[in-house]
Amino acid sequence: MAIDDKTRTELEAAVFRRLVEHLRSRTDVQNIDLMNLAGFCRNCLSNWLKEAADAKGADLSKDESREAVYGMPYETWKQTYQGTASAEQLAAMKKAQNGH
Q1: Helix 5-25 and helix 42-56, axial crossing angle in degrees, nearest 10
Q2: Phi, psi of 80 (to 5 degrees)
Q3: Would you state the pLDDT for residue 44?
Q4: Rg of the chain over CA atoms, in angstroms?
Q5: Sign of CA dihedral 28, 29, 31, 36
Q6: What is the mean pLDDT of the chain?
Q7: Which Gene3D superfamilies match (predicted)?
Q8: pLDDT number for residue 54
Q9: Contact of 23 with 42, CB cutoff 8 Å
Q10: Full-prediction pTM beyond 0.90?
């Protein structure tokens, strides 16, 4: 597919927004499950957003990048949706951990 850089960037941005919206709607899916299955989670996305902002010289705090992904302050999301990780989940994460 031959598309120009502007269109490619717009498409990638649309996909990112859709992914974020999907994760916001799936509050039943815990970050630890995402990490264990896919190797990334909502926090990873927010960290990547912050890193991209930093690389462009844009002023975006860690809290702001997390709120952009979670759709609310991170602490609010944790209190509302985050469950306690099971021993099995923690063991799987330790085994699969790749620096996140």
Answers
A1: 150
A2: -85, -40
A3: 96
A4: 15
A5: positive
A6: 94
A7: SMc04008-like
A8: 98
A9: yes
A10: no
Q: At what angle do helices 31-38 and 87-96 cross, to 10 degrees?
A: 40
What DSSP line would sit under the chain, residue for residue? ----HHHHHHHHHHHHHHHHHHHHH-TTS-HHHHHHHHS--HHHHHHHHHHHHHHHT----HHHHHHHHHSS-HHHHHHHH--PPPHHHHHHHHHH----
Interval 31-58 mean pLDDT: 96
**pLDDT score recorded for residue 96:** 77
Report the alpha-carbon distance of residue 31 to residue 29 in Å, rounded: 7
Classify the C-alpha dihedral 56-25-63-90 as positive or negative: negative
Q: Which two tokens stand for residue 18?
A: 């859709």
Q: Please, which pLDDT band fits residue 100 given cuts at 50, 70 and 90?
A: low
Is residue 69 within 8 A of residue 47, CB to CB? The reply is: no
Looking at residue 75, its amino acid is E
Q: Look up residue 53 and give its two tokens.
A: 């902002």
